[in-house]
Design brief:
The protein has 328 residues and is of the alpha/beta class. It has helices spanning 15-25, 47-59, 74-77, 98-119, 133-142, 157-171, 205-209, 213-224, 226-234, 240-255, 302-324, and strands spanning 5-10, 36-41, 65-71, 83-86, 125-128, 152-154, 178-179, 182-184, 192-194, 199-200, 203-204, 263-268, 280-288, 291-294. The strands form four sheets. It has a six-stranded parallel beta sheet, with helices on both faces. Strands 7-10-11 form a three-stranded antiparallel beta sheet.
Length: 328
């Protein structure tokens, strides 16, 4: 049997985690050969509910699930973690200013970054899902000086998957025939879903669409506003699709992307495409041997340039705000 992998999930009593944990236990993240040890982290108030989730995991009798441990202390929760999925975050509540939200999450993610630094496995890979995801990842990264920066990533895969779904719907082609979709920038309403390099059945997506007005008038706003549309329809934010995207992100990072295709991940910028170094911004990446690489050499037209710059400007403003608060 293979060596077990320790996966820590925070916010483990929440909705996204409820869609995520059972699939990790079933092998959907790390494959059908890899035993998993789950470490579930919550705030003290949610530990009771978390015990119920742990009981349900036990009742799944999953062949790959070696152990389930519960913690409300990050130093214990990240102990030996090879994969850390940071889902828990402080939601915006009525009367809360943006700066209050950044401060509340700044404290959580600074603490978790320090705990990862102190107690995670040397090969730890971190995915931040909790919002504001890119900036929370930046804070964790900057509080974990001994962990290579490249191990800190944030989720834009749900946006990526949503963009594929919209293009599939428009063209009538199956989602599996679509390749090279890209999300740039921040996981927020300023994100830029870019289909200028995408292909449908090997042909340029632009040719398959036929009409360019659809891209700016329908495709881009639909992808940017999809989370809001789901809250409106469901009365709760997307959870199963967010969990599925988190699985996709880690699975591809660990097990690789298919030849000829790429995925979107928010990763620390190396300066590519004019994104300031160190900002955690979404890029097209390929993955192999447990590492990702930003796809280089894509042509960025004026339309794309303006949209990437706007989203990156928002990330810079978020970074400035958390630096001012002393978290990064
Ligand atoms: P969810 O599980 O639904 O969401 C968790 C986080 O994921 C939120 O910040 C949410 O952002 C974010 N998110 C990112 N992308 C998406 C997406 N595409 N769709 C929906 N959400 C997205 O929240 P719950 O309230 O059900 O659960 C959160 C849990 O986290 C609670 O149990 C709470 O106790 C816990 N928590 C744990 C902490 C810890 O472990 N230290 C710290 C803080 C909270 P958004 O708010 O923008 O929807």
């Amino acid at each position: 049997a293979r060596t077990p992998v320790t996966v820590t999930v925070t916010g483990a009593a929440g909705q996204i985690a409820y869609g995520l944990l059972f699939r990790i236990a079933a092998g959907a993240m790390l494959g059908p050969q890899t035993p998993v040890r789950l470490r579930l982290l919550e705030i003290p108030a949610a530990v009771g509910a978390l015990e119920g989730v742990a009981m349900e995991l036990e009742d799944g009798a999953f062949g790959l699930l070696e152990s389930v441990d519960i913690a409300d202390d990050p130093w214990l929760g990240f102990d030996g973690a090879n994969i850390a999925v940071l889902v828990g975050a402080r939601p915006r509540t009525a009367g809360m200013e943006r700066s209050d939200l950044l401060a509340a999450n700044g404290a959580i993610f600074a603490d978790q970054g320090a705990a990862i630094n102190a107690s995670a496995a040397p090969d730890v890979k971190v995915l931040v899902v909790g919002n504001p995801a890119n900036t929370n990842a930046l804070i964790a990264m900057n509080n974990a000086p001994d962990v290579p920066d490249a191990r800190f990533t944030a989720l834009t895969r749900l946006d990526h998957n949503r963009a594929i779904a919209q293009l599939a719907r428009r063209t009538g082609a199956p989602a599996a025939s679509i390749a090279r979709m890209t999300i740039w920038g921040n996981h927020s309403a300023t994100q830029y879903p870019d289909l200028s390099h995408a292909t449908v059945g090997g042909r340029p997506a632009i040719d398959a669409i036929g009409e360019t007005a659809w891209v700016s008038e329908d495709f881009i706003p639909t992808v940017q506003q999809r989370g809001t549309a789901i809250i409106k329809a469901r009365g709760a934010s997307s959870a199963a699709s967010a969990a599925g995207a988190a699985l996709d992100h880690v699975r591809d990072w660990v097990r690789g992307t298919p030849d000829g295709d790429w995925v979107s991940m928010a990763v620390p910028s190396d300066g590519s495409y004019g994104v300031p170094e160190g900002l955690i911004s979404s890029f097209p990446v390929t993955c192999a041997d447990g590492e990702y690489r930003i796809v280089t050499g894509l042509e960025i037209d004026e339309f794309s340039r303006a949209r990437i710059d706007a989203s990156v400007a928002e990330l810079q403003a978020e970074r400035d705000a958390v630096i001012e608060l002393g978290y990064a």
